[in-house]
């Protein structure tokens, strides 16, 4: 491959990053028009909105994950394992930290990668806001590994309670979720379903009513960033499931046994999940002089280029882009990352052909929240109706599933997605409904 062709480096293989590098690889990499490289700290990709299902055990991550090396081979880009930790804008290089195995041995040394176009798509991590005890006592759902850790801890707690031969201690199977955004809401519904499935699979010493699920939210309603009618419908469904919903409760401390709130409440819980806020990874803060905000997000113009460097783009949760016509930034949603990936793809193609770069305009097509097999609620927006239209039940569930299928189509094409869907149906018919190990 010629050294004269442009080098395009995408850092982060999340929803937007993997879609972008796949399109660039097929368009440019396979034809030798550019060297397209994906850098990510893990070997595999899973669609982040599915992590709550992995945590509950209703989805086996190994069945839905995508191997980066395999995707790279099919799509005409290179994959390099590693975690970006530095940037040299003058020399157009990124620095990637050494990769250390579980035994503490260095298996991949520190490396540098040259770029002509750099796209940062490293997503977000949980923001603990400096609250005492959160990092020490809460579980997080930022990565597949963290979701699997939660699932293992949950199953161990059930097995212990099933075999201990004495009544449950207070709060022994209590699960408290801090944050009533989409992740917290969807996780609570999945956990309710799991409490019934585990009983059906023979762990009948523990009854579903022994598992007490609480959601703690600082705002005055669940899903505070979404329309009030959607919020009210969701809270009503949660209460029907027996989930204890606590709003206007700001967490001030987390201990090994309980969560304390500003109003003086204490919520005992053996398993505590933090889903109350997000920020971009710490390494992005003011990286090589680029403009960032208080959430470590890279501030970008409407072209999604950083404010200080035209050759550096940011997409997804790690970027701060003004939402045109609103007094806020584009919300951190999968649909935004998908749209941003498409825009940057066009931008790079245009620049390579000396054409004008397009500007990004976020189109909000609504929000959907899945409550597992019990219900799905959402609202449709944009051209589908004037303002917003509430939807529930089967239609909402169908549209929720279609979001993931759209992501898969962007990666594999329609035919392979049909085959994957059929394969998934056959697997579900013979495999247990919950991961039991």
From TrEMBL:
It comes from the Bacteria. Residues 7-341 form the FAD/NAD(P)-binding domain. InterPro entries: FAD/NAD-bd_sf, FAD/NAD-binding_dom, NDH-2. GO terms for molecular function: NADH dehydrogenase (ubiquinone) activity; NADH dehydrogenase activity. Transmembrane segments: none annotated. Keywords: FAD, Flavoprotein, NAD, Oxidoreductase. Its EC number is 1.6.99.3. Belongs to the NADH dehydrogenase family. This is NADH dehydrogenase. It comes from Methylophaga thiooxydans. The lineage of its organism: Bacteria, Pseudomonadati, Pseudomonadota, Gammaproteobacteria, Thiotrichales.
């Amino acid at each position: 491959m010629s050294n004269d062709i442009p080098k395009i480096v995408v850092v982060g293989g999340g929803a937007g990053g993997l879609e972008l590098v796949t399109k660039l690889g097929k368009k440019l990499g396979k034809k030798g028009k550019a060297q397209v490289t994906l850098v990510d700290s893990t070997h595999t990709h899973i669609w982040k909105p599915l992590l709550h299902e992995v945590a509950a055990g209703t989805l086996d991550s190994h069945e839905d994950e995508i191997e980066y090396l395999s995707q790279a081979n099919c799509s005409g880009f290179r994959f390099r394992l590693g975690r970006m930790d530095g940037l040299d804008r003058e020399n157009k290089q990124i620095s990637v930290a050494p990769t250390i195995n579980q035994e503490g041995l260095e298996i991949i040394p520190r490396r540098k990668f040259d770029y002509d176009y750099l796209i940062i798509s490293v997503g977000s991590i949980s923001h603990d806001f400096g609250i005492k005890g959160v990092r020490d006592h809460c579980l997080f759902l930022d990565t597949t590994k963290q979701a699997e850790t939660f699932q293992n801890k949950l199953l161990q707690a059930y097995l212990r309670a099933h075999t201990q031969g004495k009544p449950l201690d207070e709060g022994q199977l209590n699960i408290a979720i801090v944050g009533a955004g989409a992740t917290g809401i969807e996780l609570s519904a999945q956990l309710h379903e799991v409490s019934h499935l585990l009983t059906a699979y023979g762990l009948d010493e523990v009854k579903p009513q022994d598992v007490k699920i609480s959601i703690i939210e600082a705002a005055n309603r669940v899903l505070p960033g979404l329309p009030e009618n959607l919020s009210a419908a969701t809270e009503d469904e949660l209460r029907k499931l027996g989930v204890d919903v606590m709003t206007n409760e700001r967490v001030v401390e987390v201990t090994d046994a309980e969560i304390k709130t500003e109003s003086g409440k204490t919520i005992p819980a053996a398993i505590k999940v933090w889903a109350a806020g997000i920020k971009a990874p710490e390494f992005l803060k003011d990286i090589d002089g680029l403009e960032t905000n208080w959430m470590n997000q890279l501030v970008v113009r409407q072209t999604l280029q950083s404010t200080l460097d035209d050759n550096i783009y940011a997409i997804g949760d790690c970027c701060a882009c003004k939402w045109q016509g609103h007094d806020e930034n584009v919300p951190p949603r999968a649909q935004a990352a998908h749209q941003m990936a498409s825009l940057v793809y066009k931008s790079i193609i245009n620049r390579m052909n000396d054409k004008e770069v397009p500007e990004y305009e976020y189109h909000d097509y609504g929000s959907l929240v899945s409550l597992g097999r019990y219900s799905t609620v959402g609202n449709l927006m944009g051209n589908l109706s004037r303002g917003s239209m509430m939807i529930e039940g089967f239609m909402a569930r169908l549209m929720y599933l279609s979001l993931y299928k759209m992501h898969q189509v962007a990666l594999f094409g329609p035919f392979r997605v049909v085959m994957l869907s059929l394969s998934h149906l056959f697997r579900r018919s013979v495999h247990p409904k919950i991961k039991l190990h």
